[in-house]
Design a protein that fits this description.
Radius of gyration: 19 Å
Number of domains: 2
Order of helices and strands: HHHHHEHHEEEH
Bound molecules: FE2/S2 (inorganic) cluster
CATH topology of the largest domain: Glutaredoxin
CATH superfamily of the largest domain: Glutaredoxin
Strand content: 5-15%
Distance between the termini: 37 Å
Strand order of the largest sheet: 2-1-3-4
């Protein structure tokens, strides 16, 4: 089992500063029933994802088995064991968007940033997801970036749009 300070040597996303905040969260929830999911949620907010080293640390802090933590992290798609980008690009693969050419938009993003659906750019700027109808078919083709909905996109327009997310 690792101490907070030495985790940084194993995974340099787990800086002492961030682990200090993780400690606060664990202390706040320790001995409370149903603590695991809220603790993991806050840990993911702090670190950006929940790597195995962090799972072990939380398990120790809450006095529960590491396998329980691992089970929760892998069960809920909300938790990620790999780093995510600062901006999540959701490309709508619904019928209306498909008909209006979302495929070209998706191809442009993939080739421009050298990533596939489900991946994250190396600089952790973008993560790319393909999603079902976003309920904005009137705006097709649609791409959502974090909270922003962009309609009527094209392979050319999407690059200008993404330029705004630095
Ligand atoms: S199909 Fe894309 S928003 Fe409905």
């Amino acid at each position: 089992m690792h101490h907070a300070e030495s985790l940084y040597e194993i995974n340099d996303d787990l800086t002492p500063e961030l682990m200090g905040r993780v400690d606060e969260v664990i202390q706040r929830y320790a001995n409370r029933a149903g603590a695991l999911i809220p603790v993991l949620t806050e840990c993911q907010k702090i670190v950006g994802y929940v790597p195995v080293e962090l799972q072990e640390y939380v398990a120790k802090g809450l006095n529960i088995p590491g396998s329980t933590v691992y089970g929760v992290v892998t069960f809920y798609s909300f938790f990620s064991m790999v780093p995510k980008g600062r901006y999540i690009i959701k490309v709508c693969m619904g019928t209306a968007c498909y008909v209006k050419g979302i495929g070209e938009v998706l191809n442009r993003i993939c080739s421009e940033f050298n990533m596939d659906v489900g991946e994250t750019t190396e600089d952790r700027r973008f993560s790319l997801e393909a999603v079902r109808c976003l309920g904005a078919c009137g705006l097709a083709p649609v791409v959502v970036i974090n909270e922003d909905t962009h309609g009527d996109v094209s392979a050319d327009k999407i690059m200008n749009i993404l330029d705004q997310y630095t």
